[in-house]
Design a protein that fits this description.
Radius of gyration of chain B: 17 Å
Strand order of the largest sheet of chain A: 2-1-3
CATH class of chain A: Mainly Alpha
Distance between the termini of chain A: 28 Å
Number of strands of chain A: 3
GO molecular function, one term (chain B): GTP binding
Shape of chain B: globular
Structural class of chain A: mainly alpha
Number of strands of chain B: 8
Organism (chain A): Nocardiopsis aegyptia
Number of helices of chain B: 6
Number of helices of chain A: 5
Structural class of chain B: alpha/beta
Strand content of chain A: 5-15%
Largest sheet of chain A: 3 strands, antiparallel
CATH architecture of chain A: Orthogonal Bundle
CATH topology of chain A: Arc Repressor Mutant, subunit A
Oligomer: heterodimer
Number of domains of chain B: 1
Distance between the termini of chain B: 50 Å
Order of helices and strands of chain A: HEHEHHEH
CATH class of chain B: Alpha Beta
Shape of chain A: elongated
Order of helices and strands of chain B: EEHEHEEHEHEHEH
Helix content of chain A: 40-55%
Protein name (chain B): Signal recognition particle receptor subunit beta
Protein name (chain A): DUF742 domain-containing protein
InterPro entries (chain A): DUF742 (IPR007995)
CATH superfamily of chain B: P-loop containing nucleotide triphosphate hydrolases
Chain lengths: 120, 206
């Protein structure tokens, strides 16, 4: 990774989020798929514009956005929450997370995964 | 900022984003956990349709799941890098495979990642079996379905019964051998996990 944020100080992250550390949409999972609903607008913060460009061709998972922006997932969640709040992106959430009450995926989904893995 | 990864970062230039199909709606995840150098990234690379990507999760223990960037400023946080790849399942579904360090000191970072995962693969290396004890304990305690894969890079001298016994593994947990470098071998590990999850679902519905 040539431009890793690991080599950067926290200042850049602080600026990107305007100093915010909370307020991210907690329903955003690492694999929530984000779809762009609008084009980047002039004057928009560059990271927001970059996310819209990235998700224009098709939806992209939160972790993929994070990897391509070289920003931690926590920071990307805050940026995505801004875009969700303004309606510029929509989120396609994974099926409800298994909980102690419903711990496992449905047989249909598992069959689909098996078939796809066999075909790899 | 303290940064930890179990694998060296890729020296290659960044890959351009590869978009999903516009119809993609559902994403599933599988976690691959294991100790340093056991082959997690290799396994992810073997099955991924994109070059594996690397990103970070930054949190503090005090935050208890709440991301705290002020913690970054104060250098109280832990940053863990993880690799992931993806497999398109069909027009509407995609599977993400995450490689994550399994040691105790990282686990608090993975609770969030594992939440909602289909299951986990514990990748073990017989030279450092103890690296996987904690991960196995936590997965059992959480009730997350998992299989154990012995990555022998094609040169094992241990039989699987010895490995099972050394890990004190529950008889119900599948244990398979693999060479994480081989796509087909890595793929068989994921298939073993999904079959195991399916058998748990079937048992549960009886």
């Amino acid at each position: 990774m040539s431009r890793s944020h690991r080599q950067e100080g926290p200042d850049r992250l602080y600026v990107i989020t305007s100093g915010r550390s909370a307020g991210a949409d907690e329903s955003l999972d690492a694999v929530t798929l984000i779809a762009a609903e609008s084009e980047p607008a002039p004057g928009m913060q560059s990271e927001h514009a970059e996310i819209l460009r990235m998700c224009a061709a098709g939806p992209m998972a939160v972790v993929e956005i994070s990897a391509h922006l070289h920003l931690p997932v926590a920071v990307v969640r805050i940026l995505l929450t801004d875009l969700l709040d303004s309606g510029r992106v929509t989120a396609r959430h994974p099926r409800p997370a298994p909980s102690p009450a419903t711990p496992l995926a449905s047989p249909d989904v598992l069959e689909k995964v098996l078939v796809a893995l066999h075909n790899l | 900022m303290h940064s930890t990864t179990s694998e060296p970062p890729s020296p290659a230039p960044d890959a351009a984003p590869v978009p999903l199909l516009a119809t993609a709606e559902q994403a599933l995840k599988i976690a691959v956990v294991g100790g340093f150098g056991v082959g997690k990234t290799t396994l992810v690379r073997s099955v991924s349709e994109i070059r594996p990507l690397n990103t970070e999760e930054t949190m503090t223990r005090a935050g208890d799941g709440v991301d705290d960037l002020h913690g970054v400023e104060a250098k109280r946080s832990t940053t863990v890098a993880f690799d992931f790849g993806r497999i398109t399942l069909d027009a509407t579904s995609v599977l993400y495979v995450f490689g994550a360090p399994g040691q105790e000191r990282f686990w608090f970072l993975w609770d969030r990642l594992f939440s909602g995962a289909l299951g986990a693969v514990v990748l073990v290396d017989t030279r450092r079996l103890a690296d996987s004890f904690y991960a196995i304990d936590r997965l059992e305690a959480q009730g997350t379905p998992f299989v154990v894969a012995h990555n022998d890079f094609g040169e094992s001298t241990h039989d699987l019964d010895e490995v099972r016994s050394a890990l004190d593994l529950d008889p119900g947990v599948p244990l398979v051998r693999c060479d994480a470098r081989e796509r087909d071998s890595a793929k068989q590990v994921l298939i073993a996990l999904v079959r195991h999850v399916r058998s748990l679902v079937t048992e549960g519905s009886r």
